[in-house]
TrEMBL record:
UniProt xrefs under InterPro entries: Restrct_endonuc-II-like, tRNA_endonuc-like_dom_sf, UPF0102_YraN-like
NCBIfam families: PRK12497.1-3, YraN family protein
Family: Belongs to the UPF0102 family.
GO molecular-function term, one example from the UniProt record: nucleic acid binding
Gene3D superfamilies named in the record: 3.40.1350.10
Organism: Aliidiomarina haloalkalitolerans
Protein name per Swiss-Prot or TrEMBL: UPF0102 protein CWE06_08035
Length: 116
């Protein structure tokens, strides 16, 4: 299985988990040359831009440590472009950036709302 296939599998788990908690996924894998958003969801009035991370071991802190400032900046940039393409003002839209961390086999899911 390729890295992309593994990523897609765990993004599916994240979508299912978020749907069960009241969010609606409206877009996936929004990519630019210099940024990407794994999942874009709605949570009430909020547009939620979600970074999905998976690791086989259960060391949750390791996942968070792998989120670099540069990566978070690329996610924010991609989110701005997505909003512009949808003709949504980033200044008036309610937005949130979440992380869904999936660890272990069998997996555990940790959802960090407003993570960055």
């Amino acid at each position: 299985m390729t890295t992309r296939q593994v990523g897609t599998e765990y993004e599916e788990l994240a979508v299912t988990y978020l749907n069960e908690h009241g969010l609606t996924c409206i877009d996936r894998n929004f990519r630019l040359d210099n940024g990407e958003v794994d999942l874009i969801c709605r949570d009430g009035e909020y547009f939620v831009f979600v970074e999905v991370k998976y690791r086989r071991n259960r060391y949750f802190a390791d996942i968070l440590e792998q989120l670099t400032a540069a990566q978070l900046q690329r996610v924010r940039f991609a989110a701005r472009v997505w909003l512009l393409q949808q003709d949504i003002s980033e200044n008036s839209a309610a937005c949130r950036f979440d992380v869904v961390a999936i660890t272990g086999e069998p997996f555990q899911i940790e959802w960090l709302k407003d993570a960055f």
